[in-house]
Amino acid sequence: MSDILPFVIAGLTSGALYGLAATGLVLTYKTSGIFNFAHGAVAAAAAYLFHELWSVRGWPWPIAVIVSLTATGVVLGVVLELVARRVSATEPATRIVATVALLLVIQGGATAIYGASAIPVQRFLPDSTFEAAGVIVGWDQLITVGLAVLLVGALFAFFKTAALGVEMRAVVESPELLDLTGSSPTRVRRSAWVIGCAFAALSGILLAPNLGLEATLLTLLVVQAFGAAAVGRFQNLGVTFIAGMGIGIAGSVITKFVADVPELSGLPGSLPFLVLFVALLFLKADTVGAKVTRRRPYRPVQLTRGGRTASLAVGALLVLIIPSLVGAKLPVYTNGAIYVTLFASLALLVRTSGQVSLCHATFAAAGATTFSHLSTGMGLPWMAALILTGVAVVPVGALVALPAIRLSGLYLALSTFGFGVLVEQVLFPKGIMFGVTGTRAAARPELLGLDSDRGFFYLCAGIAVLALVAVAAIGRSRLGRLLRGLADSPVVLATHGANANTTRVLAFCASAFLAAISGALILTLTGTASTAGFTIMQSLTLLAVLAISGRSTIFAPVVGAVLLVIVPSYVSDPNLSAYLQIVFGLSAVVATSFGPAVGEWVASASVVTLPRRRSSPVRARRQAVVPP
Amino acid sequence: MSTGLAVEGLTVRFGGLTAVADVAIEAPVGRITGLIGPNGAGKTTTFNACTGLQKPTSGTIRFAGRDVSNVSVQGRSQIGLGRTFQRMELFESLTVRENVSIGREALLAGSRPWTHIWCSGKARAEIEQATRDALELCGITDLADHPVASLSTGARRLVELARSVAGRSTLLLLDEPSSGIDHRETDRFGDTLLSLVAERGLGILIVEHDMELVMRVCDHIYVLDFGQMLFEGTPDEVRSSEIVRHAYLGSEV
Known about the structure:
The complex is a heterodimer. Chain A is mainly α. In chain A, 71% of the residues lie in helices and 2% in strands. The longest helix of chain A has 28 residues, at 5-32. Chain B has helices spanning 43-51, 73-78, 96-109, 113-117, 121-137, 153-166, 183-200, 211-217, 235-240, 242-249, and strands at residues 5-14, 17-27, 32-36, 58-63, 66-67, 81-83, 171-175, 203-207, 220-225, 228-233. In chain B, the strands form 2 sheets. Chain B has a 6-stranded mixed beta sheet with strand order 6-7-8-3-9-10, with helices on both faces. In chain B, strand 1 and strand 2 (17-27) form a beta hairpin. The longest helix of chain B has 18 residues, at 183-200. Classes of the chains: A mainly alpha, B alpha/beta.
């Protein structure tokens, strides 16, 4: 027992910080209805600011803590409230993309300024220890836990007694009613966002000495809060805080036990996500029907027969002449063609069915590694291995969708996010995926000259065209109509007799199939692939890029591939990937929060995404039917 | 009653608030039943409980001769219970024809993955036939190829009705189908409802504020107030009832 206690104490310390962050997350979600995926990024931003003020500029640490806490809380709180308000009336997918994009901006910004490698942060709280009940406890641990408990307790009291606290509870119940009583829901929500962000900021600052400053790590670590928030059913602040503590303690104690079992080394880190999955499984479905969100009506591009032929012809011509035009850059264009397939699979999910996947790069990774096993490992013929790869990853897609399928929307996105991080932390280093070396190899097909750069380009472009045609065909089939119905109103789909869960899982299966194929192609393009192209950040970037690529399921994948792969290849800068993340993230924040105006402008500015003008309804009919 | 809907002892509570208290309703096939009452009386909550969107606190819901209290939304639809929504839930990205055809297509798709993907020639013909009939019955054949986003409120109401009609429903629950449409359209809407019952033998349970329409089409009317059943009877009885006049109708009817 006594050898476990130090782990419990260490776990209690980090758990208190997860709990603190999670409480802030639930507070903002409760009051605004917008789930902040950038909550961890807020913590990271505060930690970097603290590092800048204290380590770099030499301010006394108490002042540095207070300044970075206040600045991050206020600035990001206000920004987030604005974004949340702007996207509150849009469809679930847009609401998710908005804060995901903000995460990319903050994380990219931190990486651009401070680099991707970890910066050690010295302890600033007193590091002397005392002994209690035979256990050595650090003063810093005591202060951390005490501070977290104190703040959450204060929030509780504030909620129950203070006028603003009562108003915060009121804004959850009925913003309209609060508005009528003369209190501005916006002001109340803004206060909640500032408090929520300050909580995240404090946990980030206090976690930094333990973890070191690394943008991705911090951004994802406070994601531990997701698990705690799910246990608290995204509603209950007290349960959330206690769950955060529990996750911290359990993670720390497990660390002790898995130290001897290398296979389980990823378990402590993934514990919050396991908690998240289980909590999602037990979460009660919302009372559907009560809240049906309005979706910005959009018409998918439906090309006329002539338009279809024309765009096919232009596409085919481009594919034919690109190898002669671009010279040595051909592999970049091949990569672009592969990403068209990947974006097409994501567009099928996001655009057609209105669901969000935050682990699309993980599907691609599963495809790449499976392909490597099948072709290099088992020596299957190239084409057979490619198709088998797609088929093999289909159950993975279904598996991801299942925990949250009843809940859909946000919870589905959270589930995919959890899955992406889990696979990256636990399975990537294992032999079944990338192994300890972090790379996988596979050769190009050795027939008909397809292994040459030019031949392989034609192959990838051909597959991309097939993928686009398949997505278009699905859109016109029964499944496509059901998927679009699902995106518009799952409730109505159910009241007409279709099982929306079946529709959702099928969308994930089809999407996973295409993503796996593109992953396999990414691997064979260079012959080897490392984990770098398949991280959770890559998944988030894919989503942000898709959000700014127009609303067509046919043209958006092409635009997305050009933005993500082709254009950056003409820029050389050591920090390019961080800058890209900022650019894509910012554009997506603007497109989601400040479109439709900007979104429409972007859509109309790029000729290819312009929807076909339809004839207006019969005039005579208009006169007979008085407009609302 | 073996066909149609029979609600007994329905109670729905939201926390401390009782939205519907011990309500009993019978809506048989082959007639139009009205459900009226002031805003907040629990009409839509009753609808939600009937279709399975809202789990009742207590009470049973029988439909087509069986207890459907524990049957899913989709399951109830499969055995012939259709509905429209107060806030008009149309599939905004689809055309009128596609919206209406989903009424039958979703029914055929059901729960099985295979039927979600594959649509046999026979099924396609069935969908087309049902869509054409529903469009014609609701008088919106000429709008079939327009996106629903471009329609007026009145036409949108008809699209929603047609979508329900395109299914195999034997009983339709219509939630304020005439709100937001003008007088003349309401007249036509009433005719459409009457012909649905006369030609197709459907049953309809209608929540409506337009008393003229209710009095004209309904055979039997239930009056809800504060979640309680206040009164039930024929339109004439409702019109002459002192309590209904006092609680809801006011003096002008």
